[in-house]
Amino acid sequence: MKLTIIGPGKMALALAKGLEKEHELTIVGRDGEKLLEFTKKLEKHAKTALLDKYDIDAQTVILCVKPHALKETASALKGKADTLYSVLAGTKLETLKKAVKAENHVRAMPNLAAQFFASMTTLTGDKAKKEEAEALFASIGATLWVESEKELDIATAIAGSGPAYLALVAEALADGGVREGLGRADAMKLVEGLFAGFAPLVAHGHPAIVKDAVMSPGGTTAAGYAALEKNGVRSAFIEAVEKAYGVTKK
Ligand SMILES: NC(=O)c1ccc[n+]([C@@H]2O[C@H](COP(=O)([O-])OP(=O)(O)OC[C@H]3O[C@@H](n4cnc5c(N)ncnc54)[C@H](OP(=O)(O)O)[C@@H]3O)[C@@H](O)[C@H]2O)c1
Questions:
Q1: Which domain holds residue 118?
Q2: Which residue in 9, 18, 105, 224 is a FRET match for 134, CA 20 to 30 A apart?
Q3: Ligand 1 atom nearest 11 alpha carbon
Q4: How far is CA 46 from the centre of its chain?
Q5: Mutate which of 4, 6, 11, 52 for ligand 1 pocket (most atoms within 8 A of beta carbon)
Q6: Does residue 152 belong to any structural domain of this protein?
Q7: Which of 4, 6, 10 best tests ligand 1's pocket when mutated (most atoms within 8 Å of CB)?
Q8: What is the 3-state secondary structure (H, E, C) of the chain?
Q9: What pTM was estimated for this model as a whole?
Q10: 64 lines ligand 1 (CB under 6 A)
Q11: Could you tell me the CATH number of the domain that includes residue 233?
Q12: CB of 110 closer than 6 A to ligand 1?
């Protein structure tokens, strides 16, 4: 497929690295030098074009600018795309439809792990493009199509923001180790290994099963787990999702 990626930033680069193997890419931006720098980081040749009066007619476009830049970017474009994919956090389909002309509009919410092809990307929008969307974003990790924007915004609060929440958990566990006398580098290595090993565990078993399998009567895990419950960690995470989702409702 021929794909046009607009806004040569971090998310665009992660996507381009995932997509370049199977697709022909054109990268569009407002700064020629940045576009050149961007394409140097890719393995295959990608075309570049300046944003001003760029014609998206009949193209498949992936919009990767910041949400506040939508208006300015859209006003620089001409023509009507076949499909507009938008990764803009919190920007609704209604707003996208008003801003950029396209036959189909799809929202995608990847996360920071896209740079390692391990994103959890949620998708929603015009159903005609469901299969195409899933295939495109599978190039940067796992995908989940949901039926409403409400679900996508809740998903943003879990999987979009999630790397920051888990970073807090990772750092806190390492801090706990250091407090008890472990070296910082060793504590970080343990946390790194823990997270790598946890991914297949949670993929193959419900969290409650994982917890029960580790926790033996009167044991170390039971003591640590009780401390987490006493300090309200469960409700803190539930509230974190509530607050993050709340921001997208504004
Ligand atoms: N990073 C993440 O973890 C993540 C996760 C999910 C979704 N997203 C979404 O991905 C999008 C991009 O985020 P990012 O992290 O990749 O940001 P970024 O690295 O700052 O890239 C933003 C890009 O937008 C361009 N841009 C900014 N203002 C513009 C304007 N007025 N007109 C034209 N282009 C403009 C920038 O161009 P210049 O280089 O010329 O300034 C840059 O190429 C955001 O909408 C964000 O919500 C990001």
A1: 2-146
A2: 9
A3: 16
A4: 23
A5: 11
A6: no
A7: 10
A8: CEEEEECCCHHHHHHHHHHCCCCEEEEEECCHHHHHHHHHCCCCCCEEEECCCEECCCCEEEECCCHHHHHHHHHHEECCEEEEEECCCCCCHHHHHHHCCEEEEEEEECCHHHHHCCEEEEEEECHHHHHHHHHHHHHHEEEEECCCHHHHHHHHHHHHCHHHHHHHHHHHHHHHHHHCCCCHHHHHHHHHHHHHHHHHHHHHCCHHHHHHHHCCCCCHHHHHHHHHHHCCHHHHHHHHHHHHHHHHHC
A9: 0.92
A10: yes
A11: 1.10.3730.10
A12: yes
Of the chain, the percentage scoring pLDDT greater than 90 comes to 94
For residue 34, the ligand 1 atom closest to its alpha carbon is 39
Residues 140 and 170 in one domain: no
> 122 and 202 in one domain?
no
- For a mutational test of ligand 1's pocket, the pick from 13, 64, 116, i.e. the residue with the most ligand atoms closer than 8 A to its C-beta, is 64
Domain final residue pick, 122, 146, 170: 146
Q: Which two tokens stand for residue 56?
A: 């998206």
**Atom number in ligand 1 closest to CA 86:** 45
Mean pLDDT calculated for residue range 158-186: 97
Give per-residue pLDDT as tens, 92-149: 999 999 999 999 999 999 998 988 999 999 999 999 999 999 999 998 999 999 999 9
